[in-house]
Amino acid sequence: MKCKLLPQRWRAANCPFYACVLLLFLSSALHANDPLLSNTIGNDLDVIKISNAISTSLPQSTITGTVVDENGIGLPGASVVEKGTTNGTQTDFDGNFTINVSRNATLAISYIGFVSKEVVVGSSTKINIVLQEDAASLDEVVVIGYGTQTRAEVTNAVSQLAGPVLKQTPAISTSNALQGQVPGLFVVQGGSAPGFDDSQLRVRGSSTFNGNVPVLIVIDGVANRDPDGLNRIDGGDIESISVLKDASAAIYGAQAAGGVILVTTKRGKTGKAKFQYTTDQGFSRPIGKLGVANALQFMRINNTADELDGRPLGFPQELIDNFQNGTRESTDWWDDIIGGRSLSQSRHSLNVSGGSERVRYFTSFGHARQGALAVNDDKTQLRQYNLRTNLDIDVTDNFKVQFDVSGRRKYTQRPQGDTGGVGNQLAVTSPLLPAFINGDSNFPASGYSEFNPAARVTSPGYGKFNNDVFNANLNWDLKMPWLTDGISFKGFVSYDHAYWVEKEFNFTWNWYELDQNGEPVQRNSRTIEPPGLTQTFRQSNQTTVNFRLEYEKRFGKDHDLKAFVAYEQNEGAGNFFQAGRLNFESAAIDELFAGSLNQDNWKTDGSASETSRQNYFGRLSYSAFSKYLFQFNFRYDGSSIFPKGNRFGFFPGASAGWRLSEESFTPEVFSDLKLRASWGILGNDRVSPFQYLQAFSFPSGLSGNSGGYVIGGEDVQTLVPGVSPNANITWEKTESIDIGLEGSLFDGKLGFAFDYFKQNTTDILAARNSSIPNVFGILPPSENIGEFFNEGVDAQVTYNYDNRNGFNFGITGNLTYARNRIEFFDEVPPAEGSEFQKLEGKPLNSQLVYKYIGIYRSQEDLDNNINYPGAGLGNLIFADLNGDGTINGDDRYRYDAKAFPELQYGLNLVANYKNFDMSMLLQGQGRVKKTVNNEFNASGGGNNLAYFVDRTYSLSNTDAEFPRIRRTGLDGGVSSDFWYRNADFLRLKQMSIGYSLPDKTLEKLKSLESFRLYVSATNILTIFDALGEYERGDPEFTNNFNFPQLSTINLGLNVGF
């Protein structure tokens, strides 16, 4: 009889006995985790058991199927076993399987790193199984700097987010999809204008007072210093995101002080070509509206200000009566300009993956679009295109090559002026003025000071911004068993190019009034500044070469060693050019040559830069008995921005872990329990380069545009020295300490991770303020003298439930708290008795403000308190903190303004029932403040929030919550702690509901492997908003007069074929 071997399966009935025995041994070596083989092969081969297993397996029907992940990609080597028997098989390279089972059998499907699943066969002959990733698995592969580890091996604070979780939030900017998802990562979205809505990222808060050190983005192993690097990537291309939060980031040396985010993109898998197409169409509307005053409220509050100032009332009673009786109508600028309008958006993504055993590929194309929100706005738009190809080639069994190419084109356009211009005008424009003549949007009225938001967007002026990026990486992995087992030579060559073209054209816009016949006529035109055109060109290039020698070895059964040493070199270059002209006579030709011929109306600017780096680094990892873990890494960085002798810095890191769950004294309820700790030195070179060189500049404005002085009646070109150079500057250094406890219980159903961290930054570059006298004569240089401290905690808890009856759910909660203070920066000592003004020892962003102790509500209050110039009834009362009997600048104190949240948290829920799926994300922030005084202003005719109107001091409302409003400014223009308000919030950030066609339906369709319809929404509901009663806009935004926060609803489709 001829022996027949099927892929991933043996048939004993058709083979001689000795061939079966040999085949079992070979299969056990290849598939140690196969349940069939693990039940029949032990330390000794039990022939009787094998024979029994074979003889009692009586298949009666043949089942075929496919095992895929959530993206429809086949899982090769997945185990498929008939429950209660030893009958089983494994999937082939495409995830396909064939198995003979008894009637009404139940199949148990498992795959490393995925949640196991059971399926009742019933009458089906073809079954498609989708497995979900198991985030709690100890075999989960975690991406770390220049390598990977299993979750059990990790000794550092590393948080990882899977790509499918990221896709739950349908954001065009990838950074926005990270909100509330990752412990230790602060994400704040400061605006939502199309193309200008990227979030600000900080890992565990701030690490220095010398500017905001950006997070280092590493894409497929290559560091990218572009702050927009994360948003270059289509979210659908991302396999996982890892955040290095502690000394693990030291492997990136002087670029790592702000934390590191590692992005791994998807790659092809062996099998036939599989296509995935995803599209969603959505509409966005503002979450809420600015609660500005109506006409009657506006006139009342302004008249109150005039009355208290002793001036004639600005609005006569006759005008008030006209609005009161309806003769004239109040204008709600928000309703007229925004109203019920929606911003449309769409996304499309198509990818294909597959390949042979030797060559695999993943290719994707993405397109995203957003439109305008305001009436008459035909300019605001975003168009974005993404393209990626990842190619894997196994040249030989020991030599593998990866070649990746990606690019993005981003085109953004808006009306002239800043992106928040329309929102700002909605907030300050008088409600007494109509938005349109006779309600016709084709005829905008004058508006406040002729700045009608509806008219402004009709101007031929615009801002156009184009950004193209291109990246190519070549990676290799050469195993060298001819030298010794476990040694390999790896590396990559990367090229990155970015190009920006910006064109900003300002021109006049028209507004209308009614003539004596009641017809709209154009009266005047207006622009923010003289009609002009400015064009800007920027580009940057970056080349990186990396060589690594890696070694991996197991000694005996209980000792594992991994190590690598590497060399990396990076060279970057960039240039900038800008030109502009003013006084365009016509908008028909928006090119520079059409502007003024007078050279006084021309402007040019330009610059060029070059940087280079050399880095030597490595890592050593050791594990004993799978429970004692040790790791050491180092990086020796050199940068051209520092002077010779100080160009290189050494940045070491060390960590250790103890897997308590492997000890006999640990309760069995713990599936895993690990205590870990880390220490390391991180660096920061994101500072002004070449401070060791003397800089010079051409002065401007001294003699027309000559850039010099007039000597003897003639213009003389002049160079002016800048800040004094410092030949001793070097790196800023951050010492990072982390202690963590992580684990899981109840067979991995409940997982947790808790970390305490502390960061102490020294050698911060800052100019001396105290130790160098003011009469020094020149600007002193920056020196490495500053110190900064940051500490906090982050935590995550997960729970996964699967009842095997088609229903399962998972919930993940995380929070991060970070608190900082400035330790030293050579601060000028405050005046005697005003030590409370010191910034040292206070948190970053602490402001000098007056201390509020009340409101002048009566003459008695004026008589019994120390008054400042201009103080009167209704003004705030300030404390005389230094006790000198006067209120002046020396009485201000350092107030913790908390401009950036100290606390962020998120709660993510996912659930599946048969063919339905649901996800929901709650996200919030705490211990953050915003000021409300910007919305409290009656000067210049601007409007106010309605909330203040009946709550401000007046002669008839002396017990008011807020002080009086002044036409001449707010309390003399001073700042006090009275205006800071808690800005905590909790919102339902995201929710989606989906339905996937069942396997039986797909089986009939044949050409489809997956089909899912879904509805998703973002920024759905603000559950708690500490500032909500003010109706001042979104609590997260830094400026509530900007483009409003948007709530979006999307209808989407995902098809696999």
Automatic annotation (TrEMBL):
InterPro entries, sorted: Beta-barrel_TonB_sf, CarboxyPept-like_regulatory, Plug_dom, Plug_dom_sf, TonB-dep_OMP_SusC/RagA, TonB-dep_OMP_SusC/RagA_CS, TonB-dep_rcpt-like
Any one GO biological process: siderophore transmembrane transport
Keywords, alphabetical: Cell outer membrane, Membrane, Signal, Transmembrane, Transmembrane beta strand, Transport
One of the record's GO cellular component terms: cell outer membrane
SUPFAM superfamilies: Carboxypeptidase regulatory domain-like, Porins
Domain TonB-dependent receptor plug: start-end pairs: 152-260
Pfam families per UniProt: CarbopepD_reg_2, Plug
Keyword Plastid annotated: no
Signal sequence, renumbered to the chain: 1-32
Membrane topology term: Multi-pass membrane protein
Recorded GO MF terms: siderophore uptake transmembrane transporter activity
Subcellular location: Cell outer membrane
Family: Belongs to the TonB-dependent receptor family.
NCBIfam families in UniProt: OMP_RagA_SusC, SusC_RagA_signa
Name of the protein this chain belongs to: TonB-linked outer membrane protein, SusC/RagA family
UniProt source species: Arenibacter palladensis
